[in-house]
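Holo prediction — zinc ion.
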Amino acid sequence: LYSYFPGGPMWPPFRRNLRYAITATSATSIDRATLSAVFARAFSRWAAATTLKFKEVASASDADITIGFYSGDHGDGEAFDGPLGTLAHAFSPTDGRFHLDAAEAWVANGDVSSASSFGAAVDLESVAVHEIGHLLGLGHSSVPDSIMYPTIRTGSRKVELESDDVLGIQSLY
Ligand code: TQI
Ligand code: CA
Ligand code: ZN
Ligand code: ZN
């Protein structure tokens, strides 16, 4: 079953058209257009299940949600740890911060079988769909096939919401 963050924080009814900015990209080699496409697909999966709408904007000052790649200690008390371990983290509503560990061997085209000289390839879209669930207020689920299950096999891809994810998000929005 799905869960919420303690206290059940959510985006309030007057904030259902959420804007996101991809702000810190210098630490990744993935190009801008590819990042925009991957995050747009990840947000669209949650939009399809709810009345929420998501739109990319250029500037963090216009955004409800900010997305960036960071290495090691990046000033929020949750330092990244190099390849594998923690891949990314997102804060609960209505904080909107979504950070990705720049040290991961991110794969943006879904081809997680591609060999990587850094170690295991990590599918960016799979992690984005999971972290957006956190940004919207979902905690972890006990259903192994759900997007919000707390582990994923390395080198695997999981981007489709499972019925448990849909029930969870529809109980909030
Ligand atoms: N990052 C953890 C996560 O997003 C951070 C975290 C741990 C967390 N406990 C939490 C966030 C409780 C909110 C509430 O779950 S992670 C996966 C998965 C991670 C893990 O880097 O370990 C994905 C990020 F589910 F596959 F294991 C994305 Cl998809
Ligand atoms: Ca890491
Ligand atoms: Zn962070
Ligand atoms: Zn999680």
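READOUT: Residues 70, 74, 76, 78, 89, 99 surround zinc ion (ligand 3) (CB under 6 Å).
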